[in-house]
Amino acid sequence: MGKRSRTGTVALFSSILIVITLAVYMQAGNHQFLNYDDDAYVTINPHVASGITGRNIMWAFTSIEASNWHPITWLSHMADVQFYGLNPRGHHLTNVAIHTASALLLFLLLLRLTACLWQSFFVAALFALHPLHVESVAWVAERKDVLSAFFWFLTLFFYYEYVAKRKTSSYILALFSFVLGLMSKPMLVTLPIVMLLMDFWPLGRYRHEQRGEDLREHLGRSIALIIEKIPFFVCSLFSGLITIYAQRTTGAMSSLDLVPLWLRIKNALLAYVSYIGKTVWPQDLAVLYPFPHSIPLWQAVGSLFVLIFLSASVFRAGRRHPYLVTGWFWFLITLVPVVGIIQVGSQSMADRYTYIPLTGLFIMAAWGVPDLTRGLRHRRVLLAVLAGAAIIVSAALT
Predict the structure, then answer these.
(1) Residue 347 backbone phi and psi in degrees, to 5
(2) Cis ω for the linkage preceding 46 (within 30 of 0)
(3) What radius of gyration, in Å, describes the C-alpha atoms of the chain?
(4) What is the rounded CA–CA span in Å between residue 309 and residue 315?
(5) Cα–Cα 20 to 30 A to 7, which of 1, 81, 176, 246?
(6) pLDDT in tens, 211-270
(7) Distances, alpha carbon 369 to alpha carbons 1, 47, 297, 363, 364, in Å
(8) What are the tens digits of pLDDT across the range 106-130?
(9) What are phi and psi of 118, to 5 degrees?
(10) What is the pLDDT of residue 253?
């Protein structure tokens, strides 16, 4: 495929992705504010509802209201008020626009990383349309989700540019984007680890550069990749400390004293498996999944067995199919801050917590199913039908 032809194809796929995302989510513009956090974030928050002023900007950078330090999120809400007032349509459509931009950025990122057009599009389309992401996009108070995810993918995009071209400016842009993401939502604290996963696949930076390279040289190069991420880890550490301070100060972590650690661990194990189940079969979705008073031991042990079995299978297949390692541990690791070991609030799990983590499972499916069907007759037709069905069903349910 010539360069001009490929550019046209990418533009076509990008346009299709934008159109289908907007076609599904534009209806959110007809929705109202909720009295569930939208009031605290926008409608009755005097600092936000009065728009962008010098005093409000200062407040955004010093406030730990809503149990978080996320000044970029506050500024985003203020900007909406500046443009739309308290008309909910504009606030909702801003969420939709950011979500659409993130889906597009994810598509272009994976395409640059792997040169696989169809797989990259499939992952981006599922990110854009999966029902588990409705809560993040169609809820004004979850601006922090869509905003932080946009900076997540932008950081990875700049990181790829740095690895490919070794330009210091790209590294600085990646770090700057990462800081903006942390200032949108501290969920991004695990991003440096995901960058290390990307070094494994698809960047392939752990591979022996020459035959005969000994273990010491290989280990030294791996350590160098970790050292390369130190500024990112330092930012994550500061963000995590600020978040713990904010949540303790505002009483959001009071449930730590009420819910035993053992019950939180059992709930976390069960939540991981539940998220996988709802990804494959998204039914019985809810605004709130109350924290249970008790969890049968067999459910926790069974969930642990499932996670160990899947992790062992990924390790075993990882040499031949490295995307499984990146995808699986992207999912596992990015859920750690919100899986409930450190309990914040009364929920046992939440759809919005999957907004970034599900990308890992989508990657596993996008590259894994074609490998599983290798050698089958009419393979391309089968893959097209399966991918099309997944996207259409997701769009319909969303």
Answers:
(1) -90, 145
(2) no
(3) 21
(4) 10
(5) 176
(6) 556 677 778 888 999 999 999 999 999 999 999 899 888 776 655 567 888 999 999 999
(7) 25, 49, 34, 10, 8
(8) 999 999 999 999 999 999 999 999 9
(9) -70, -45
(10) 65
